Amino acid sequence: MKKPIYFSIAAVSLVFGLLIAFQFRTTSSIAGGVPVDRFQELTIEKKQVELDNAHLEQEAADLAAKIEEAKKGRSQASEVLESELSKIRMYAGLTPLSGPGVEVIMENPPDKNGGASFYSIRDEDILKVINDLRGAGAEAMSINGQRILATSEIRLAGNHINVNLVRLSPPYHILAIGNPGTLKSSLEIKGGFVEYLSANGITVAVQQREKIEVPAYNGSLKFDYAKAAQRG
């Protein structure tokens, strides 16, 4: 009678021990997991991070668009500067130009021996022709390949005429870009300077051209004493 009782007690103890062990493992498992409140917090934080990332991506896209616009603006500004520089170089005579105009050929009369006299055409004669052409609207001029600028000197030097410090000899070929008819009329006007030169034996031929090519100035542009004035 005692053995069955002991056996029953042992069986109940075993079952009770198994229940305790199972309860302990379940409690440990719950303790090792994530609490419900913490899980909700992490979910909210995840959504916030996703929103922040979306905002950052939008800001990055906006900045990229602004950079592209800045590049376009810089390119446009560069094009404007290049255009202005081209105009300045053209006005300064540093660019070869072409267009309709006239060619004026001035030749000394022959001397007694049949040769040419270097003393007939004077520097002021050429200056007068240049001024008449400029007054008639000539936009660019040259003499024997020398570009005429506002600073160009035209002066007699012995048997020659110096232009831009370059010695020139006759015949003098003056090229002028502008309205051909207006330029030609300004020189050939009755009682004008060409008539005066012809009366003194100098040959002056004025020919209209559909295309005149005036070279660029190739000398030195340097200011030793002149400086930009300070405003204010």
Automatic annotation (TrEMBL):
Q: What is the top-level taxon of the source organism?
A: Bacteria
Gene3D superfamilies, per database record:
Protein of unknown function DUF881
Q: List the protein's name.
A: Division initiation protein
> Where does this protein have coiled-coil stretches?
39-73
The UniProt entry's sequence similarity note says: Belongs to the UPF0749 family.
**Alphabetized InterPro entries for the sequence:** DUF881
Q: Does the keyword Coiled coil apply?
A: yes
Q: List UniProt keywords, sorted A-Z.
A: Coiled coil
Name the Pfam families for this protein.
Answer: DUF881
